[in-house]
Every structure is written in C-alpha cells, then in structure tokens.
C-alpha cells in the first residue's frame, strides 16, 4: 500500500519537568510548543497527570489559546480529567494508564478488561468533538476492545521495542517490532487510525516510521533531551528527516 505522509506529534511534557525542578516560569512549555510548530511538528502532545508532576492546568489553558496545530491531551480515565477535557475540547484525547509511583507511563491501558466503563467514559468526549485515542499494548485483544467501545484511534506502546534497541537486545527488538507491525496492520484493517509512541529515538524510529499502516508518531523525551545539544528546532527537524527517509 502507498503510505501517506507520517505525522509527528511532539510531546512537550519534559520542558515542564525542567521548569518545575526549580519553580517559576522558565522554560515555558507553551513557548516550546510554538517552536515545535515552527519546526514542522504536526501536533503537540501534553499529559496532564493527576499529581501535576510536569504539565499543569495553566499549561493546558495556554496551549489551547496559542496553538494552531492540534493538541493531543493525554490523561488518565478519571472524572477530574474528563471534566477538564470537556471544558477545553482539544482536538484529541489519549487515554493512558497512570500510576503515581511510575517515572513514565508503564504499559498500555487494559481496554479489554474495562470495555463497558471505557465506552461510557469516552462517549461524552467524542460528543464534544474530541478524537479519542487509546494507548495500548500491541495485542489483538486490546485492539478488538477498542473497536468494541468505538474509539477511532489507537496508539501502540513502543516502549519494549525502544528499550530492546537501546540495550542492544536485537532478538527482542525484532520480536517487539513484529508485534507492532502485525497489530498496526490488524488495527488498520479494523478501521482504526494507528499511532505509535514512547521511547523512540533517531536510531529506532526508522522501522516504525516505515510501516505504511501507521499514521502518526508521538515523541517527546528524546527530542527534548536532544534539544539541549542541538536546539529544539534542529532536534525536531532531524527527527522529521529520519521519519521521512524511512517512509520514502
């Protein structure tokens, strides 16, 4: 199949992490988001955690007011977050699992075990005009559950693949890539839009970007880290180059 241009969503959470380490206003995640737009990002991702460890409510206010590209609002499936999403009506809402003790999102959302509750949860979000995405493992049961509840988009968790690449466990990397490849194709055949995210780098992004059934990648921590050395604009431009080269 001919693959359309692959979209890049830039996650600006860890600009807020640096700001919050000292307090005050700098660096400003909204400024980073506008710079990301200028550098070619197709969208901005921000995760408002329940403990507000990085992005805070005022950041979401600022992003909604300033962005011209879509905001992908990552959140846990709680009543508080639903109310915030319904107030702002972002372009996209991505439901993710969340544990207070975790350093970063661990694993995918178990949609299969909670399909009835999640179907009811996402209905008002969809009615408000937000595209609902489910952050899941590359697992057929989870994909099938997303179809059942009417979620139009999934984001496949690439963490195990990215970790295997970073640790040079090449056999494990190939196994994880095969899972993502198979589930991206299966989900696409079920009518879902497929995104992939978590842990991707310049080195590891190519095989994922090459998958014709993947519409969007969401990448944050690595890009923000690279920005320390390259600058934010060049870091994003290099990721875009890697993605386009793999896709082309």
Note the topology.
Layout lengths: L6 E5 L1 H10 L6 H10 L4 E5 L9 H10 L4 E5 L3 H10 L3 E4 L19 H13 L3 E6 L3 H10 L3 E5 L1 H8 L3 H20 L3 E5 L7 H5 L6 E4 L1 H10 L1 H16 L1
Parallel strand pairs: 1-2, 1-8, 2-3, 3-4, 4-5, 5-6, 6-7, 7-8
Helix pairs in contact: 2-3, 5-6, 7-8, 10-11
In words, what does this structure look like?
It is a single chain. The mean pLDDT is 94. Helices cover 49% and strands 16% of the residues. It has 248 residues and is an alpha/beta fold. The radius of gyration is 17 Å and the shape is globular. Strands 1-2-3-4-5-6-7-8 form an eight-stranded parallel barrel, surrounded by seven helices. The chain has helices spanning 13-22, 29-38, 57-66, 79-88, 115-127, 140-149, 159-166, 170-189, 205-209, 221-230, 232-247, and strands spanning 7-11, 43-47, 71-75, 92-95, 131-136, 153-157, 193-197, 216-219. The protein has a single domain, classed as Aldolase class I (TIM Barrel, Alpha-Beta Barrel), CATH 3.20.20.
User: What is the share of helical residues?
Assistant: 40-55%
Note poorly predicted spans. Answer: none
Into which percentage range does the β-strand content fall?
Answer: 15-25%
* Mean pLDDT score: 94
Number of separate helices: 11
The CATH architecture name reads Alpha-Beta Barrel
Radius of gyration: 17 Å
C-alpha termini separation: 13 Å
The total tally of domains equals: 1
Sketch the topology as an H/E string, one letter per element. EHHEHEHEHEHEHHEHEHH
What overall form do the CA principal axes indicate?
globular
CATH topology: TIM Barrel
The level 1 CATH classification is Alpha Beta
Structural class: alpha/beta
């Amino acid at each position: 199949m001919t693959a359309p241009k692959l979209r890049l969503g830039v996650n600006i959470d860890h600009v807020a992490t640096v700001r919050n380490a000292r307090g005050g206003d700098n660096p400003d995640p909204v400024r980073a988001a506008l710079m990301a737009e200028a550098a070619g990002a197709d969208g901005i991702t921000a995760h408002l955690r329940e403990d507000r460890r990085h992005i805070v409510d005022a950041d979401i206010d600022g992003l909604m007011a300033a962005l011209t590209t879509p905001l992908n609002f990552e959140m846990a499936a709680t009543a508080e977050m639903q109310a915030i999403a319904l107030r702002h009506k972002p372009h996209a809402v991505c439901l993710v699992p969340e544990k207070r003790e975790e350093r970063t999102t661990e694993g995918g959302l178990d949609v299969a075990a909670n399909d009835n509750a999640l179907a009811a949860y996402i209905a008002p979000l969809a009615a408000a005009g937000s595209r609902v995405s489910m952050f899941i493992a590359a697992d057929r049961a989870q994909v099938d559950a997303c179809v059942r509840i009417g979620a139009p988009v999934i984001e496949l968790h690439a963490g195990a693949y990215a970790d295997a690449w970073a640790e040079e466990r090449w056999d494990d990397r190939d196994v994880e890539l095969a899972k993502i490849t198979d589930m991206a194709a299966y989900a696409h055949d079920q009518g879902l839009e497929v995104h992939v995210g978590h842990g991707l780098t310049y080195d590891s992004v190519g095989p994922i970007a090459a998958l014709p059934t993947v519409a969007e990648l969401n990448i944050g921590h690595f890009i923000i880290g690279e920005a320390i050395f390259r600058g934010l604009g060049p870091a994003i431009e290099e990721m875009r180059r890697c993605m386009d080269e793999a896709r082309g």
